[in-house]
Amino acid sequence: MWKTLPATVSLIALNGIIFLLVDNLLPAGNLLAERLPLYFPKNANFGVWQFVTHMFMHGGLSHLFLNMFGLFSFGAILERVWGAKRFLTFYFAAGIGAALIYTAVHYVDFNSATRQLQAAGLQSSEITQIVQSRDPEQIWQIVSRSTAEVTEAQITSLRKLYQTVNIPMVGASGAIYGILTAFGMLFPNAKLSLIFLPVPIAAKFFIPALLLLDLFSGVTGFSIFGGGIAHFAHVGGALIGFLLMLLWRKDAGAYPQQPAF
């Protein structure tokens, strides 16, 4: 497998090694855990390299397994079709693009929450304290000193502001969604199914439905898969994958009509 799928195998191996180093072999507060996830640019831990390195960090074994399962299931097919070099170009372009779009959306959230808190009477210096604070109780104290009455909308804005700045993004999901999109464009009639929905559905229907669900969850905040999911990174990775496939469409005639599972 190494000789036929060097890129896919290398990516899976590197993800596994970093997961073991961070979660099992090194202390929880080690340098990798602090410097590899993607932080919001206003966080002191932010580094531009994180637009790449976040793809090799995962929030748990199940998160790692799901992403690597998707990488192996669909990435291996694309690597056979494209070769290792083009596949890696696509993978990193989708992952980095997903991170950039995710960050841009968070900038919109950050600015919106900041405006709402300023309208409620908070000063810029107080908002900076909120952003930099690592003690939630201190946040509530700042707000209560600044306003006579804290509304639910203000609390929501406060939480959004704090989470945007202080909760990093990890995982290869953006790149995986780019891969899913490419797979669906190359093999639209291939049948796919989810674990909880074992009915095979053509990729041309399955993948757009999955993306619409992610977009809905990102906009509304309601997710059937639970919290802590970077929905806009998924959508961003799919968008970059779609655009790359349009650029590469001239090569479509060289692709096989059916995937080699």
Task: Lay out the secondary structure.
Elements: H1 6-25, H2 31-35, H3 50-53, H4 61-82, H5 84-119, H6 124-132, H7 136-146, H8 152-166, H9 173-186, E1 191-192, E2 201-202, H10 203-220, H11 231-247
Antiparallel strand pairs: 1-2
Helix pairs in contact: 1-4, 4-5, 4-9, 5-8, 5-9, 5-11, 9-10, 9-11, 10-11
Report the CATH C-level class of the largest domain.
Answer: Mainly Alpha
Helical residues, percent: 55-70%
What is the mean pLDDT? 80
Rg computed from alpha carbons, rounded to a whole number of angstroms: 20 Å
Structure description:
By secondary structure, the protein is mainly α. It has 2 domains: 6-103 and 168-250, Rhomboid-like fold, CATH 1.20.1540.10; 107-166, no CATH class. Helix content is 66%, strand content 2%. Strand 1 (191-192) and strand 2 form a beta hairpin. Helix 5 (84-119) packs antiparallel against helix 8 and helix 10 (203-220) crosses helix 11 (231-247). The protein is globular, with a radius of gyration of 20 Å.
Write a brief caption for the model.
The chain has 261 residues and is mostly helical. It is built from eleven helices and two strands. The model has no long low-confidence stretch (mean pLDDT 80).
